[in-house]
């Protein structure tokens, strides 16, 4: 059995005890037993399908229980799903108790808020839009309780990993307390709206059968989002594998790809690009040197200057890279950046000697990011420069080698936020004062 911190076990025990205390008033005369049984069974079935097949959680039935049942009864709806589910991860008992107590306490809090605001009467009378106020407050209470519970287990040492707050996808390993709440609000609000529709139809003359029809579009939506996250995870895995291969081949530039991706994002955001394009430019920065997989390792790791013939071989890497990623459709214009990131505004770059506006904008962004990181990193053929010296060199070469807009955008972003790249292997080397480049030489762009 895994070693679970004692404080984590104590937190789970306190949450489970709280659920017992909240459910103590049950049963009472207001509880429709058949409705509780149906909702509990329906939630267990949905939770099994969604968790096993789609890798997420499904809250509409749970929130419908909060809108239809008294709080003590609503707290019982998620218990069968958690207690009957198969869980192979250890510690099994502790995880099972956590999976039962966590949603039970959250739905109890949502039901308590909903009933105290007169939500039950609004649902029965179908008073729109007044029914939305208690329902919205209940959803907020639901998210708040989940955030407190998950934050507590994180603070206790993550002895029992919290289940994802998002209805689909995975949560980051160590999210912040504030992020736990705000990250869950939007998706849980959508599930809350579906749960409210279920509750209203349930109380209408059409009955529970009509309420069940609400689940069909929600299941379809859940499937679509799960497919999206799976595809996105596959994209990330593809990029990680390519970058790791480059890092293994060229140890001197380990971490360079990730930092160029970060600098490209800084430039793109400073230029006001939309999120989708920022993401593409991040891919472009990360993969810009993937063509080095086709370059002999002895050239990549050679100390000192390259011969003209060796430089011609090195200068083939953009074309190699473009050929490697040509079939990866999700990269979009990032493929053009991989091919043209060594072009220069005055036409003296490679591989095609493009000039000015002939160079794709994404390539001009990556060119500046690449040169900046090359100058601020220690390599086999050059020592690291301070950030200020690198920016000054970029400004000197703006208009000839680099697009002035991109240089200004990076300088403004660095001046406001600073440069805080991820820690990588080559950052253990000390930063030394920059050596002045030879007249007319490139601004420090990497090989």
Automatic annotation (TrEMBL):
<feature type="transmembrane region" description="Helical">
    <location>
        <begin position="180"/>
        <end position="202"/>
    </location>
</feature>
<feature type="domain" description="HD">
    <location>
        <begin position="253"/>
        <end position="375"/>
    </location>
</feature>
<dbReference type="InterPro" id="IPR052020">
    <property type="entry name" value="Cyclic_di-GMP/3'3'-cGAMP_PDE"/>
</dbReference>
<feature type="transmembrane region" description="Helical">
    <location>
        <begin position="208"/>
        <end position="226"/>
    </location>
</feature>
<dbReference type="InterPro" id="IPR037522">
    <property type="entry name" value="HD_GYP_dom"/>
</dbReference>
<keyword id="KW-1133">Transmembrane helix</keyword>
<protein>
    <submittedName>
        <fullName>Uncharacterized protein</fullName>
    </submittedName>
</protein>
<feature type="transmembrane region" description="Helical">
    <location>
        <begin position="137"/>
        <end position="160"/>
    </location>
</feature>
<keyword id="KW-0812">Transmembrane</keyword>
<keyword id="KW-0472">Membrane</keyword>
<dbReference type="InterPro" id="IPR006674">
    <property type="entry name" value="HD_domain"/>
</dbReference>
<dbReference type="InterPro" id="IPR006675">
    <property type="entry name" value="HDIG_dom"/>
</dbReference>
<dbReference type="InterPro" id="IPR003607">
    <property type="entry name" value="HD/PDEase_dom"/>
</dbReference>
<feature type="transmembrane region" description="Helical">
    <location>
        <begin position="62"/>
        <end position="85"/>
    </location>
</feature>
<feature type="domain" description="HD-GYP">
    <location>
        <begin position="231"/>
        <end position="426"/>
    </location>
</feature>
<dbReference type="Pfam" id="PF13487">
    <property type="entry name" value="HD_5"/>
</dbReference>
<feature type="region of interest" description="Disordered">
    <location>
        <begin position="421"/>
        <end position="447"/>
    </location>
</feature>
């Amino acid at each position: 059995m895994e070693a679970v911190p004692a404080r984590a076990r104590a937190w789970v025990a306190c949450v489970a005890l709280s659920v017992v205390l909240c459910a103590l008033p049950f049963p009472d005369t207001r509880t429709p037993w058949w409705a509780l049984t149906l909702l509990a069974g329906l939630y267990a079935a949905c939770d099994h399908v969604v968790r096993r097949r789609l890798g997420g959680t499904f809250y509409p039935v749970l929130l419908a229980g909060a809108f239809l049942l008294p709080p003590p009864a609503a707290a019982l709806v998620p218990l069968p799903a958690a207690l009957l589910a198969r869980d192979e991860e250890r510690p099994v008992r502790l995880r099972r108790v956590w999976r039962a107590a966590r949603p039970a306490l959250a739905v109890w809090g949502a039901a308590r808020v909903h009933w105290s605001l007169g939500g039950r009467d609004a649902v029965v009378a179908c008073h729109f839009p007044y029914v939305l106020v208690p329902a919205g407050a209940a959803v907020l209470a639901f998210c708040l309780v989940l955030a407190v519970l998950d934050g507590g287990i994180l603070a206790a040492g993550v002895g029992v990993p919290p289940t994802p707050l998002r209805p689909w996808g995975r949560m980051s390993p160590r999210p912040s307390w504030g992020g736990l709440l705000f990250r869950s609000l939007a998706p849980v609000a959508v599930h809350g709206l579906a749960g409210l529709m279920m509750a209203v139809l349930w109380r209408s003359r059409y009955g529970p059968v009509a309420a069940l029809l609400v689940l069909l579009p929600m299941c379809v939506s859940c499937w679509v989002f799960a497919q999206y996250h799976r595809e996105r995870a596959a994209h990330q895995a593809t990029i990680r594998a390519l970058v790791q291969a480059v890092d293994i081949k060229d140890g001197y530039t380990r971490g360079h790809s990730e930092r160029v991706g970060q600098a490209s994002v800084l430039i793109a955001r400073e230029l006001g690009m939309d999120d989708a394009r920022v993401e593409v430019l991040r891919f472009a920065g990360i993969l810009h040197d993937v063509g080095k997989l086709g370059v002999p390792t002895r050239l990549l790791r050679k100390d000192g200057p390259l011969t003209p013939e060796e430089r011609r071989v090195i200068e083939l890497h953009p074309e190699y890279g473009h050929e490697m990623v040509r079939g990866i459709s999700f990269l979009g214009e990032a493929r053009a950046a991989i091919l043209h990131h060594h072009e220069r505004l005055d036409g003296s770059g490679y591989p095609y000697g493009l000039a000015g506006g002939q160079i794709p904008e994404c390539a001009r962004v990556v060119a500046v990011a690449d040169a900046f990181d090359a100058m601020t990193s220690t390599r086999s053929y050059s020592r690291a420069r301070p950030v200020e010296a690198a920016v000054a060199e970029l400004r000197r070469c703006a208009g000839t080698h680099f697009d002035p807009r991109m240089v200004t955008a990076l300088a403004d972003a660095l001046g406001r936020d600073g440069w805080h790249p991820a820690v990588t292997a080559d950052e253990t080397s000390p930063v030394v004062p920059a050596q002045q480049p030879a007249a007319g030489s490139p601004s420090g762009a990497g090989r």
